[in-house]
Amino acid sequence: MHRGVAVMAGLVGLWFLLLASPRSLGESLVKFAYAAILLVFAYQRFRTSPKGAAGYARHEEDGRLRLDVTPAAAPVHWFAAVLAIALGAGVTGSGISLLWIMGLLFAAITWMVLLKDPRGLHATRQRTFHVGPEGVEVGGQLLRTADIHHVGIRNRFGGGVEIVYDASQGIPTGVAAGIAHRRKLAEVAYRVEIEAGGEAHVLAAGLDQVTARGLATEVGRALNPDPAKP
After folding, report:
1. Total-model pTM
2. What is the SS3 assignment for the chain?
3. Average pLDDT score, the chain
C-alpha cells in the first residue's frame, strides 16, 4: 500500500519536473516546488515499512539491550492532497498572469498535508537507544537508573499517560490509561518518554498503542532484570 503510494507520488513528481510546461518564471517556481514536495514525500514513504506500521527490533549487546524503533507513517488527508496537487497542475502552464501566486499557495498547502507531520519531529525518524541495569543511553546521553522517575506512554492528541516503570519498586506495573476518542492520527501518535532528573526525554514517537506498550515494557524489564533469570 505505502510503496504503491510512493510510486504514484514519485511519478507525479517526475511529471512536474520533466513534463510540465510552465509559461512564466512564476509558473516555473510552482513546477519545481511541486516536484520537490512530491519526490521528497515519495522517498519518505518508500523508506517506511511496506504496511507503514510501527515496530521495533531488540538486540542484546554487551549485557545491554539495543532497541531499534521504526515509527508508523502518518495518515494523510488524501482529499486535500489530491485537490491541492490538481490545482497546482492546473496553474502550471496556464499562462494566466499572476495565477502562479495561487499556485505557490497550493504548493504550501500540499507541503503541509504531505510533509508536515503533526505528531512532531520525533515521529518522523527512526530511533535507536540502549537500555541496561545502569540506565538508558539515548542520543549520546546516559540517563542513570537512580535518576529515573518513571517511563510513560503519552499520546500527543489524547493526553493519556501509562506508567510502566515504578522507580520505588523497580518493576513494570503496566497501568493503562486508554484514550476514549481517538482520531485516525491519534492512533499512531503514541510516544514513549522517560523522566529523569526532573526532565522528560522522548525515546520513540509515532507509535501505535500496542507497539508503545511493548517498547515501554522492554525498557522497564531491561532497567530491572529479573535476577532469577539467566
Report:
1. 0.75
2. CHHHHHHHHHHHHHHHHHHCCCCCHHHHHHHHHHHHHHHHHHHHHHHCCCCCCCEEEEEEECCEEEEEEECCCCCCCHHHHHHHHHHHHHHCCCCCCCHHHHHHHHHHHHHHHHCCCCCCHHHHCCEEEEEECCEEEECCEEEEHHHEEEEEEEECCCCCEEECCECCCCECCCCCCCCCCCCCCHHHCEEEEEEECCEEEEEEEEECHHHHHHHHHHHHHHHCCCCCCC
3. 83
